[in-house]
Write a structure and sequence with these properties.
Radius of gyration: 22 Å
Number of helices: 16
Strand order of the largest sheet: 5-6-7-8-9-10-11-12-13-14-15
Shape: globular
Bound molecules: pyridoxal-5'-phosphate, iron/sulfur cluster
Largest sheet: 11 strands, mixed
Oligomer: single chain
Number of strands: 15
Structural class: alpha/beta
Length: 434
C-alpha cells in the first residue's frame, strides 16, 4: 500500500444537540445563528470537523454553499411555521412542548416521494424483502442495515424523514444471504448498488460481510458492484487515515481482482468539495485500486443553481480522473419549495454548463427526475406545430420498452416536478399511462 502525505484527522461529529459547540457557528451574527438553531429542531442536522473546518467559508456563512448544504436554513420552513416555533422557543417552552411542535411540522412535509415505499420492493411469494429494491431490470439496490446514516446530512435530503425518526428503517436489510438468494433467482440483474444513507460509513469489517459473499459465490450474472456514497465529499479521511482505510482499499483491490467492475457513485454537490488535499488524495487512492468514480448530484436552489458551478464541477471531476454521471432534479419531498428549481430553468442551467465542457465531461446526463415510472430526462424545450413543449425521455423505466422513447409535455415555466406536467397536444395521458 502506498504512503500517503496527509495529516490524519480524528472524527468529531456534531448533531442538533451539539450544534452550539461548533465554535465558528456559535460566533455567527445572532440573527443567522438563531434561525439555523430554530430550524434544526425540525430538520435533521449532522456535520463533522472536516466539513466545518475545511469546506465552509465562515467569513461569509450566510452565502456559503456548503453552509447551506449542511446547516438547516430559515427558508426551509414556511414563514408561519417558523414564527410559531420561534415564539415557543423564545417563550421558554419546555422541551416536551417543542418536540410536539417539531413533529407536527415534520409530518406536514411529504416524507415519501414517488411511491418508494410500496412500489419497488420485491415480493417473494407475496412477502416483501426488506432492504432490496428492484425497479430497473439490470440493477438491484441494496440497503445494508449499518449504512443508513451519513457523515453529514444534506439539507435537501429526501431521506430526512428516516434521519429524524418519522420513518423507521423499513428499507434496511442485515442479511447478506438474502441478497445472494435474490441475485441467484434473478439472472437479469448485472449490477448491485449498495446505498443508504451511506454504505461507506460502515467499517470495512462489516462491509466485507456483505461484499465477500458476492465475490465468492458470484450469484447470477452480477458483474458490477457500486457504492452510492457522499463520503468523499464529507469525510475523505475514510479512504486515507481512518484506522480501517487501508483495509477498505484492500477490499476495493479484491473486488477488482475478482473480476468485478467497481464503481464509486460519488455525490458531489459543489466544486468546493473537490478542492481540498484530502479529497484529491482520496480520489487518487481509490482510482489506483482500479475502481471508477462516477459523480452525481441534484440541482438545488440556493446551493448550486448556476451553470458555472456545474461546468467547473464537471471539468474538475474529469481532471481528477472521475466521470460526470447524473444531474438530478430535486424530488418533491421535505422542504421542496425552498430547494426546487423549475424544469425549464434546470434545462437551461444544464445546457449552458454542458456546452462549456469537452466531450470528456459530456458523459453526464440530466436534468433527470427519478419519478414513479422511471428516470425521466428533460431533453429539450422545443416548438412543434406551434406549441411549446418539453421533450422528455426515459433513461430508466419500470418497463424496459419505454427506455429511450421521446415524449412530450406541455411547456410551463413554473413546473418543477414530473407529476405536475401535462401531456402536450391536448392529449389526455402520456403513452405509458395507457
Ligand atoms: C437511479 C436508480 C438506479 C440506477 O440507475 P442507473 O441509471 O443504472 O445509474 C437504480 N434503481 C433506482 C430505483 C434508481 O432510482
Ligand atoms: S449524503 Fe445522500 S443520503 Fe446522506 S444526507 Fe446527503 S443526500 Fe441524504
Amino acid at each position: 500500500m502506498s504512503k500517503i502525505n496527509i495529516q490524519p484527522k480524528s472524527y468529531k461529529a456534531f448533531t442538533n444537540r451539539s450544534i452550539d459547540t461548533i465554535p465558528q457557528f456559535a460566533a455567527l451574527p445572532r440573527e443567522i445563528h438563531d434561525a439555523v438553531q430554530t430550524v434544526s429542531r425540525v430538520m435533521p442536522f449532522r456535520a463533522n470537523n472536516y466539513v466545518v473546518d475545511e469546506l465552509i467559508d465562515w467569513s461569509n456563512a450566510a452565502d456559503d454553499p456548503i453552509f447551506k448544504l449542511v446547516f438547516p436554513q430559515k427558508g426551509m420552513l414556511s414563514g408561519e411555521d417558523y414564527a410559531s416555533l420561534a415564539t415557543k422557543i423564545r417563550a421558554g417552552e419546555p422541551d416536551s412542548v417543542l418536540q410536539v411542535e417539531s413533529r407536527r411540522l415534520q409530518q406536514k412535509m411529504n416524507p415519501h416521494p414517488a411511491g418508494q415505499m410500496e412500489l419497488n420492493v420485491p415480493k417473494c411469494q407475496g412477502e416483501a424483502i426488506d432492504g432490496i429494491q428492484h425497479k430497473y431490470t439490470e440493477t438491484v439496490l441494496f440497503f445494508p442495515t449499518q449504512g443508513q446514516v451519513c457523515h453529514a446530512y444534506c439539507t435537501y435530503c429526501f431521506r430526512w424523514a428516516q434521519f429524524v425518526g418519522v420513518d423507521d428503517l423499513k428499507f434496511a436489510c442485515g442479511d447478506p444471504q438474502a441478497l445472494i438468494s435474490y441475485l441467484e433467482a434473478h439472472p437479469e440483474v448485472t449490477n448491485v448498488l449498495f446505498t443508504g444513507g451511506d454504505p461507506l460509513i460502515m467499517s470495512s469489517r462489516i462491509l466485507r460481510r456483505y461484499v465477500e459473499p458476492i465475490l465468492k459465490q458470484r450469484p447470477g450474472n452480477v458483474r458490477s458492484i457500486r457504492f452510492g456514497t457522499k463520503v468523499l465529499a464529507y469525510w475523505p479521511y475514510r479512504f486515507l487515515t481512518d484506522k480501517d482505510a487501508d483495509d477498505l482499499m484492500g477490499l476495493f483491490d479484491e473486488i477488482v481482482a475478482s473480476g468485478f467492475n467497481l464503481a464509486i457513485m460519488s455525490h458531489f454537490t459543489h466544486p468546493r468539495e473537490l478542492e481540498t488535499d484530502a479529497v484529491r488524495t482520496a480520489m487518487a487512492r481509490i482510482l489506483r485500486t482500479g475502481a471508477n468514480i462516477r459523480c452525481q448530484a441534484p440541482l438545488i436552489r440556493h446551493i448550486n443553481d448556476d451553470a458555472e458551478v456545474w461546468r467547473s464541477m464537471w471539468e474538475t471531476q474529469v481532471s481528477l480522473g472521475a466521470i460526470p454521471y447524473y444531474m438530478f432534479v430535486e424530488r418533491d419531498t421535505g422542504p421542496k419549495d425552498y430547494f426546487s428549481v423549475p424544469l425549464a430553468r434546470a434545462y437551461e442551467i444544464f445546457s449552458k454548463a454542458y456546452s462549456g465542457v469537452s466531450g470528456l465531461a459530456r458523459t453526464v446526463r440530466g436534468p433527470s427526475m427519478s419519478a414513479t415510472p422511471g428516470k425521466i430526462l428533460v431533453d429539450g424545450v422545443v416548438e412543434i406545430a406551434g406549441e411549446r413543449v418539453f421533450a422528455l425521455k426515459f433513461i430508466q423505466a419500470r418497463n424496459a420498452d419505454w427506455v429511450n422513447r421521446i415524449f412530450f409535455a406541455a411547456y410551463d415555466e413554473n413546473v418543477a416536478w414530473f407529476d405536475d406536467l401535462k401531456p402536450a397536444f391536448g392529449e389526455k395521458r402520456f403513452f405509458f399511462e395507457e
